[in-house]
Amino acid sequence: MIGLLSRRAGWSLLVLCAVATTTFIGTLKVGDPVRTLAGPHASARDRAHVRQFYGLDRPVYVQYGRYMSHLVRGDLGRSYRYREPVALLIGQRLPRTAMLALMAILIEVTLGVTFGTIAAARKGSSIDTLVMSNSFLLMSLPTFVSGQLILMVFAYYTGWFPIGGYGVGFWDHLYHAILPATTLALLSAAFYARMTRNEMIEILQADYIRTARAKGARGAAVVLRHGLRNALLPIVTSLGSSFGALFSGAIVTEAIFAWPGMGRLVFESITGWDVPVIVGCALVGSFGILLGNFLSDMTYALLDPRIRRE
């Protein structure tokens, strides 16, 4: 277990370093942040002064070295657009996106495992066909389409939920988060439904399941007690990759529902070419993905003792 932890920590540091390098250099090469700093109507002289003031007139490797020297000290830089430390901006937005992500994971796992198990238990029936066809439809819908539909039906026409915003107070935050969290969860819920169904069908045909039935176990006891526990192992492994999908999906979802989280910060930073914020958000998003994969690996090791001996 200690060897596994050490290897994962080392690889994680290398990945974060690679993300910082590619994002920083790529952002500077593709666009020019001077337009954000000086404004679209600034003269050439003003732009040259801004470029010199922020050190953007120096070679890319010099700018990169300066940024990395600050980064190893925990300094993510200062936003060009908001004129505030990037760490402060991310610290304000990250808990809001984390709330969406946790709610989305709870929704997607609950819906996916439930409907996947029902479809497997009723293999070949109309219920199985209905669950699989709907899961295929949800997996085919882009987030910006499903988000607009959910917003239109459940907020605009029915008025059951707020159209957007963050609300005031903890319970109001949860209330405002229901629609964007559901939008984030739909794609993964459909994926987990199909995965659970396939795993459950294979497990329900195993020898130990037939033995349990021969000993008198029936119906839900066989499906839930003997089958579902083993079917959850690949789902636990897949949860780590869900963090990446949730973070990328949050960029669109938070823009649709006016949710002031990390996704919306990324969207505003890209449109304004705010390099320090873009790199800082990329690092935080990468760390979230690595953390999710790490936690899923540790959970898998707890569920499967063979992993601990490696």
What would your notes on this structure say?
The protein has 310 residues and is an all-alpha fold. The chain has a single domain, classed as MetI-like (MetI-like fold, Orthogonal Bundle). It is 79% helix and 0% strand. The protein is built from 13 helices and no strands. α5 packs across α8.
Helix and strand arrangement:
Blueprint: H1 2-30, H2 34-38, H3 44-53, H4 60-71, H5 86-121, H6 126-140, H7 143-157, H8 170-203, H9 207-214, H10 220-256, H11 262-272, H12 275-303, H13 305-308
How would you describe this structure in keywords?
MetI-like fold, single chain, 310 residues, globular, mainly alpha
Please tell me the CATH architecture by its name. Answer: Orthogonal Bundle
CATH superfamily: MetI-like
Q: Sketch the topology as an H/E string, one letter per element.
A: HHHHHHHHHHHHH
Give the overall shape.
globular
| CATH fold category name | MetI-like fold
Radius of gyration over C-alpha positions, nearest whole angstrom? 24 Å
Tell me the domain tally. 1
Report mean pLDDT, rounded to a whole number: 78
* Tally of DSSP helical segments: 13
| Percent of residues in beta strands | under 5%
Low-pLDDT residue spans: none
Largest sheet geometry: none
CATH class: Mainly Alpha
Count of beta strands: 0
